[in-house]
Design goal:
Number of strands: 13
Number of helices: 13
Radius of gyration: 21 Å
Order of helices and strands: HHEHEHEHEHEEEEEHHEEEHHHHEH
Strand content: 5-15%
Mean pLDDT: 96
Shape: globular
Low-confidence stretches: none
Largest sheet: 7 strands, mixed
Strand order of the largest sheet: 1-9-8-5-4-2-3
Length: 383
């Protein structure tokens, strides 16, 4: 029986050697690797500015800090996303205002954005769900009319493009994640990209305590001032060294994901009990993070039996995401939650299973996963 985990970091001798080289230099922070990694990521995405940080959450949080968002302000956030998207708003004291998903792609329902805007709304967060780009033209039209800053949460969208433009450059800033099972990894870490130089410069200061001079800028070692409240949200040299090597393999990683995703889409097409997400507009290129299937209403109550049946066959799965964020205990208790408030997000949370397509998965694995899913569905339906 095969053992196919949902996600697996692909690390080789090159990454190990790169880490050892950094250790030998003794320069573990504020060194040249972070700048090299930022340049490589900027080159891949086409971004004028890239800033390495501790995580995607840190990138989101620093963005809102730079904007001066705080108590009394509101930020529109998709209901169907990782909780970090909302946490970054909550950290500032502002209120996340949730918008439901649309069923075709799982992305936020653009048609509902304007009804969520109030006089307190200062920014809009969009999430490219599972790496499928949001239709950004109408989003940006709404944002400009209401003078809102737009933040792209690109945690699952490295390599995704819309009409040839990489995600993260479709709005004001884009925030990326390098968690172990993402498209590339630095163990932990993140990156912010932007077309706006003042934003990049501000985030560089904020990621390192608000110091006015970084280590390399100081004429006298140890002499600096602090001009604003900042955080210790830096990416270190060991992480950056891994990231540099991962960037060299990123096109190959994404191509393997695309191949696996397309093969799985074809194989799933004759399974009546599931449906799959699609783009809601033309010109989009997914990052192919995973392949989520939405179970039919009749099968939804047996989702956990189905997951166990797949596990028994060696197929790892996940759920994106286990709840709409406003249904999670913290947010439900603070802001109140009524069942049915976000029906599409609730359906995705309660009826979907995410299947692996990462670079650790072979075409033979894809065929095995499809057959395992068919067998598992038959098993739970006839139990």
């Amino acid at each position: 029986m095969r053992q196919i985990p949902f996600g697996k970091p692909i690390l080789g001798d090159e990454e190990k050697q790169a880490v050892c080289e950094v250790m030998d230099t003794g320069i573990l922070a504020h060194g040249p690797r972070i700048q090299e990694f930022e340049a490589a990521f900027a080159g891949f995405t086409g971004a004028p500015h890239a800033v390495g940080v501790a995580s995607c959450t840190a990138a989101l949080h620093l963005t809102y800090l730079h904007l001066g968002i705080g108590p009394g302000d509101e930020v529109i956030v998709p209901a169907m996303t990782h909780v970090a998207t909302a946490h970054a708003v909550e950290f500032t004291g502002a209120k996340p205002v949730f918008v439901d998903a649309e069923s075709r792609s799982g992305n936020l329902d653009v048609a509902q954005i304007e009804t969520a805007i109030t006089r307190r709304t200062k920014a809009l967060s969009v999430v490219h769900f599972l790496g499928m780009p949001v239709d950004m033209a109408p989003v940006m039209d709404i944002a400009r009319r209401h003078r809102l800053f737009v933040v792209e949460d690109c945690a699952l969208a490295i390599g995704a493009r819309l009409n040839g433009v990489h995600t993260g450059l479709l709005a004001d800033v884009g925030c990326f994640s390098f968690y172990p099972v993402k498209h590339l990894t630095t163990a932990e870490g993140g990156m912010l990209i932007t077309r706006h130089q003042p934003v990049a410069e501000a985030v560089r200061r904020l990621r390192a305590f608000g110091m006015d001079k970084h280590v390399g800028e100081r004429k006298t070692p140890g002499l600096y001032d602090v001009t604003t409240l900042g955080y210790n949200y830096r990416l270190n040299e060991l992480q950056a060294a891994i990231g540099i090597e991962q960037m060299k393999r990123l096109p190959e990683f994404i191509e393997t994901r695309r191949r696996n995703h397309e093969a799985m889409t074809a194989g799933l097409s004759d399974i009546d009990e599931v449906s799959v997400f699609e783009s809601s507009h033309d010109g989009s290129q997914s990052s192919y993070y995973c392949h989520a299937v939405v179970l039919s209403d009749a099968l939804a109550d047996k989702r956990f039996e189905l997951i166990n049946a797949l596990r028994a066959r060696g197929v790892g799965t996940s759920i994106y995401y286990p709840h709409p964020v406003p249904r999670m205990a913290y947010y439900a208790a603070k802001y109140g939650y009524r069942p049915g408030s976000f029906p599409v997000a609730e359906c995705i949370a309660d009826q979907s299973i995410a299947l692996p397509v990462g670079p650790h998965v072979t075409i033979e694995d894809v065929r095995y996963i499809i057959e395992a899913l068919k067998e598992a569905i038959h098993e739970v339906e006839t139990a």
